[in-house]
């Protein structure tokens, strides 16, 4: 017996990640904001690779660029780079214990920060505050929670008793 697909989970997770990225925070906490969209896109690239790949990451990134009002194409590039690396190592990453998966996601988020730093330096944009280098650590710690919530919503395990 096959489970019914929950097609609403993916769009809702993207919208929630965009809203969490737009949520106003105090200036002192702003640089520590985890890259919610990257966590959600990482989940979908790992768990649904037949439908969610580089094109998916690019479209979500463009939506984020338009929503956040930043440099057009920056988040699209960042998410495509992350999705490419995830696709390349998906077969191994999928079978890692959650702690090792979280470390790998932390490394990808750190890679994302390096990419942002290089882009901003190349375009002579003002540098981000040093505290942004702590955000990948927070994202790494949040990965197991994000993974569990999205898996539960996608599979509908909360309805079983």
UniProtKB/TrEMBL annotation:
Pfam families: MreD (PF04093)
Cellular localisation: Cell inner membrane; Cell membrane
Record flagged with keyword Nucleotide-binding: no
Top-level lineage group: Bacteria
InterPro entries the UniProt entry points to: Cell_shape_determining_MreD, MreD_proteobac
Membrane topology: Multi-pass membrane protein
Keywords, ordered alphabetically: Cell inner membrane, Cell membrane, Cell shape, Membrane, Transmembrane, Transmembrane helix
Chain segments annotated as transmembrane: 55-81, 102-119, 131-151
Main subcellular location of this protein, as a coarse class: membrane
Family: Belongs to the MreD family.
Cross-referenced PANTHER family: ROD SHAPE-DETERMINING PROTEIN MRED
Its job: Involved in formation of the rod shape of the cell. May also contribute to regulation of formation of penicillin-binding proteins.
Protein name, UniProt field: Rod shape-determining protein MreD
Native species: Marilutibacter chinensis
Lineage of producing organism: Bacteria, Pseudomonadati, Pseudomonadota, Gammaproteobacteria, Lysobacterales
Gene: mreD
């Amino acid at each position: 017996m096959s489970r019914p697909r929950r097609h609403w989970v993916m769009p809702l997770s993207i919208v929630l990640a965009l809203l969490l990225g737009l949520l106003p925070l105090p200036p002192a906490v702003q640089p520590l904001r985890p890259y919610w969209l990257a966590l959600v896109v990482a989940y979908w690239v790992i768990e649904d690779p037949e439908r969610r790949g580089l094109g998916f990451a690019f479209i979500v990134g463009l939506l984020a660029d338009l929503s956040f009002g930043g440099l057009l194409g920056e988040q699209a590039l960042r998410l495509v780079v992350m999705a490419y690396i995830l696709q390349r190592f998906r077969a191994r990453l999928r079978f890692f214990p959650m702690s090792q998966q979280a470390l790998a996601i932390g490394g990808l988020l750190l890679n994302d920060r390096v990419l942002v730093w290089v882009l901003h330096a190349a375009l002579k944009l003002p540098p981000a505050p040093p505290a942004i280098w702590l955000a990948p650590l927070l994202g790494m710690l949040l990965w197991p929670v994000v993974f569990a919530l999205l898996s539960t919503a996608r599979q509908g395990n909360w309805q079983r008793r």
